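Thread title: Can someone regenerate the structure for this chain?

I was given the following input by a collaborator and told the matching structure tokens would be attached. They weren't. Posting the sequence so someone can regenerate them.
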Amino acid sequence: MPASPAHRRYWVYILASKPSGTLYIGATNSLKRRIWEHKTGAIAGFTKQYSVKTLVYLESHRNVTDAIQREKALKGWLRARKVDLIRQENPLWQDLAADWYQLPMDSLRSE
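Best answer:
Regenerated them for you:
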């Protein structure tokens, strides 16, 4: 049974290729599924091309409109401000999804 709208969560997240490396900002209603797609390269695009797989920042929203507005706002920020946001919450740029999955090492290597 799907979650009721009152219990639904929407996520805005930032991925990095390495500390202070290439950044990607996205929004989703299924964070674990979406991060899996990024980590395994399941979907062709920017993150697969540039090997952007490390979840370094996330925030949840109860309303899809709020999540989309926040995603757009973050994308409009200067890079230095994005890096500051990440450093405030995750100063070591650790992968916040490091223990979410059991991935074969081959799927984590860049292509």
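The longest helix spans residues 64-76.
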